[in-house]
Amino acid sequence: MLSDYAVIIETLSDEDGSGFITTVPDLPGCLSDGATREEAAHNIADAIKAWIEEATRLGRSVPEPSAHLLPAGE
Predict the structure, then answer these.
(1) Torsion sign, CA atoms 62, 32, 46, 44
(2) For a disulfide at 24, which of 1, 30, 60, 64, Cβ 3.0-4.6 Å?
(3) Which tens digit of pLDDT belongs to each residue from 15-42?
(4) Sheet of strand 8-11: strand arrangement
């Protein structure tokens, strides 16, 4: 299920520290970063897992991945 969430990877400007920031539109506040796109993608997978674990621990619902955010062709 973790890999079903759409992830947005954006380039950070030099003034913002460079590298990449990743966000998960379906999971408010779930974000991570990395020096490379690959590192950012790896780090967001950990962040998604932690977000879901914490929401579950707090008794909050975990949103299903949005179908309208699936990659093109799916």
Answers:
(1) positive
(2) 30
(3) 988 999 999 999 999 999 999 999 999 9
(4) 8-11, 20-23, 31-34
